[in-house]
Design brief:
Blueprint (H helix, E strand, L loop, with lengths): L31 E6 L6 E6 L25
The structure holds zinc ion.
Zinc ion (ZN) binds next to loops.
């Protein structure tokens, strides 16, 4: 039984074929479910995409540049 949970690429649960063109799969949204046909063995299987979205923010301008020793002053 191939590992088919939380994989980086869709993996066929029948033969273990890894789908490398996952970006072509027409999910309805970032998270979605489709019936995917394995390109290797031709079996249909249920495929869900689990999107993990994170955010990173930084100030555009540092409030206090005296502590930023590596910044180049013009
Ligand atoms: Zn397959």
């Amino acid at each position: 039984m191939p590992d088919t949970s939380w994989t980086d690429q869709p993996t066929c649960p029948y033969c273990g074929h890894i789908e490398r063109d996952a970006w072509e799969i027409p999910f309805d949204s970032i998270d979605g479910e489709v019936v995917q046909t394995c390109a290797h063995c031709g079996e249909d299987y249920h495929l869900s995409r689990n999107a993990i979205i994170t955010y990173t923010s930084e100030p555009l301008k540092k409030a206090d540049t005296r502590d930023a020793g590596s910044e180049v002053q013009s």
